[in-house]
Amino acid sequence: MSNSKDLANDFKSGGVYSCPVCRQGQISEMPLMEAVACNFCRHIFTVDSRQQSLKMADSSQPLSWRWNGRRWQNATRNDAELGWGVGLAAIALVILPTSLIALSAYIFPPIPGSSLSWVPLFWMGLTFLSHLAFVVSVVVEYYQFPVFAYLQAMRRRLFHSS
Ligand SMILES: [Zn+2]
């Protein structure tokens, strides 16, 4: 009865799936457990086969993903992917304020040798970094990309692979 529904985009136990966290390793079933684990970042997930979703078991954050037939998708949201328009807006959000300040520094250059001549450059860098940080944080939040889990896994691979 439970095997009668065999859609192509179903998440099947025993199949090979990439890890939704690090996107580097593969998840496989743990013996004697109702869970799967990643062979790269070693995170453990519980499988909800009825909802076709994975839930991170060893995280305080309620992270879960749904298999859409090709890859894992954020299960807490049904929105489409961020389109190129959003990407363009994100780039504009970083570039525009920075270039505005660069332009004003170009039009009204500081007096060379004055004690405050570093201010426009510093202000430009600060503007660029703060806007970039804002955009990155929005993207990370949207995709529920666990930055620290990913960095940890990368570090483990770098130092323990050889
Ligand atoms: Zn992983």
Explain this structure to me?
The structure is a single chain. The chain is α+β, with helices and mostly antiparallel strands and 162 residues long. The chain has two domains: 17-74; 84-157. Helix content is 39%, strand content 16%. It has a seven-stranded antiparallel β-sheet with strand order 1-2-3-4-5-6-7, with no helix packed on it. The protein is elongated. Mean pLDDT is 78; it is low at 1-8. Bound molecules: zinc ion (ZN).
Share of helix, binned? 25-40%
- Supply the helix-strand structural class: alpha+beta
Give the end-to-end Cα distance, rounded to a whole number of Å.
Answer: 47 Å
The count of β-strands is: 7
User: What is the subunit arrangement here?
Assistant: single chain
- Unique bound compounds: zinc ion
Note the run of SSEs as H and E.
EEEEEEEHHH
Largest sheet, if any?
7 strands, antiparallel
Count the DSSP helices: 3
Strand order of the largest sheet: 1-2-3-4-5-6-7
Rg measurement, Å? 23 Å
Strand content: 15-25%
Low-confidence stretches: 1-8
Tally of structural domains: 2
On the 0 to 100 scale, the average pLDDT is: 78
Principal-axis shape = elongated
Transmembrane segments: 82-108, 128-151
Keywords: Membrane, Transmembrane, Transmembrane helix
